[in-house]
Structures are given as structure tokens and as C-alpha cells.
């Protein structure tokens, strides 16, 4: 269990310059909720997810369109600019059947094939409605499961974080080769420190006091109305008292 107040207090200072917006908190809450229902327990996994998201969305912690564009047209223009400058080898934002598969979500899912993978895995119609990845709760599930299951590249968190090994740098291969690998590893370690402290804080909390049960009034000792003898009456009372 993660003490969210302790977690946010730590990352606010170490990663967000002392301030967190409500949007950032909401975005991280959605990731935490997706993690909590997943059944996964290794906090290094969650820390690496947070680190990658932090880098991909410029600290926003919510899903975005490529280039942080506010519209579909703006995102297409951002990819066209990358292509024109030679930074990418193909303009993957060109529409396919009227739909453009530029980067969306916290991990910037790109290309038709990846949207189809997500559709087949999660059951949402991402191919026809790629903007579903801009819905925070849906994208949070995709982000957590995608890292754990190796949906994007075949590499997954379990390949880099085991009981005897933690490869924070090469874990970037889960999403995108070694692009910004050392930078993201640094962010992930700071998130791990915060999560570790938050889990410890949750364990130290005193559970709420349980009110004591109401006092029980002893049942009256039954008395024979017509005892056969005084001795028999005393024996009967004694048996009742000692149960």
C-alpha cells in the first residue's frame, strides 16, 4: 500500500520543483489506481513507469498528443516538421484511412501497428478512435500493462528488474531503444525513493481505533423455585456460576 500524501510530498520536492498542479496529481492517481488493480508488487516496476511517463510528457503526467499539440492538425504538423528536418525517416502522421497515428498517451504510442496491438490486447477500438489514448484512465491501464507485458518492443519490466538485478538504464528498451535511457533511469530512481518511503509510511500508520464492545450484563442465575434441599440448591447455583 502506498501512502499518497507521503509520495506526493517526496516527488513534489525531488522532481517537480516544489509544486504540483491538480492535473499532475490526477494523472499520477490514475497510474497508481491502474497499478493497484494490476496485482503487480515490485515498486521498481512502478518507479520505472513513472520515470518514463515523466520524460515523455514533459512532467505533465497525463496523456498528450505528439508535440503537446492541442488539436489533431497541430500534432500532424509537429510530426511533419520532424520529418522535414530529417529527425525521423518517415512521416508516420500521414493519415491511413483518414486516421493519423502520431504519438498519443503517456508513452506516445505511434504507428498503425502499435495501435492495432493495443486494440487487440485491451479491446478498445484504438484503430478507429486513437484519441481514446488521451483519456487518462484508459491510458493509465495501457501504460502499466504495456510496460509489464512488453507490448511495444517485446521487452518487459521483468527482463530488467528481478530479485537479484535492477537495470534502470536498459529498461528503456521496453519502449524505445536507448533513447534518453540514462536520463529516464535517473528520474525512475527518484520515483523509487518516493514510493519506497510512501510504502513505509503506510505501514507505520496506526489503524483506526475500534470501539470496545458494549458491556455484557451477566445473565441472572436461575434459581430453583422449590429446591429438593439446600445442598442441592447450592450445587445447582455453583454449576451455573462456573459454567
The CATH architecture would be Orthogonal Bundle
The backbone outline, from C-alpha atoms, is globular
Number of domains: 1
Low-confidence stretches: 221-228, 237-243
Structural notes for this entry:
This protein is mainly α and 243 residues long. It has one domain: Orthogonal Bundle (Lysozyme), CATH 1.10.530. It is 48% helix and 3% strand. α2 packs across α6.
List its traits.
3% strand, 48% helix, single chain, globular, two-stranded antiparallel ribbon, 8 helices, Lysozyme, 243 residues, mainly alpha
What would you say about this model in short?
By secondary structure, the protein is mostly helical. The protein contains eight helices and four strands; from the N terminus they run H-H-H-E-H-E-H-H-E-E-H-H.
Amino acid at each position: 500500500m502506498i501512502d499518497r500524501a507521503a509520495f506526493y510530498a517526496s516527488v513534489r520536492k525531488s522532481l517537480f520543483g516544489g509544486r504540483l498542479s491538480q492535473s499532475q496529481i490526477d494523472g499520477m492517481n490514475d497510474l497508481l489506481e491502474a497499478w493497484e488493480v494490476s496485482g503487480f508488487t515490485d515498486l521498481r516496476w512502478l518507479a520505472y513507469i513513472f520515470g518514463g511517463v515523466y520524460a515523455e510528457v514533459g512532467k505533465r503526467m497525463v496523456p498528450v498528443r505528439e508535440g503537446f499539440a492541442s488539436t489533431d492538425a497541430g500534432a500532424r504538423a509537429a510530426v511533419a516538421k520532424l520529418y522535414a528536418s530529417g529527425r525521423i525517416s518517415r512521416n508516420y502522421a500521414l493519415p491511413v484511412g483518414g486516421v493519423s497515428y502520431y504519438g498519443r498517451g503517456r508513452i506516445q504510442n505511434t504507428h498503425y501497428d502499435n495501435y492495432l496491438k493495443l486494440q487487440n490486447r485491451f479491446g478498445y477500438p484504438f484503430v478507429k478512435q486513437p484519441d481514446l489514448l488521451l483519456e487518462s484512465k484508459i491510458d493509465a491501464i495501457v501504460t502499466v500493462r504495456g510496460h509489464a507485458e512488453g507490448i511495444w518492443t517485446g521487452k518487459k519490466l521483468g527482463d530488467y528488474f528481478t530479485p537479484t538485478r535492477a537495470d534502470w538504464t536498459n529498461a528503456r528498451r521496453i519502449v524505445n531503444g536507448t533513447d534518453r535511457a540514462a536520463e529516464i533511469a535517473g528520474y525512475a530512481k527518484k520515483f523509487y525513493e518516493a514510493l519506497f518511503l510512501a510504502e513505509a509510511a503506510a505501514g507505520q500508520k496506526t489503524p483506526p481505533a475500534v470501539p470496545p464492545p458494549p458491556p455484557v450484563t451477566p445473565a441472572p442465575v436461575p434459581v430453583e423455585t422449590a429446591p429438593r434441599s439446600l445442598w442441592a440448591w447450592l450445587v445447582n447455583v455453583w454449576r451455573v456460576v462456573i459454567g
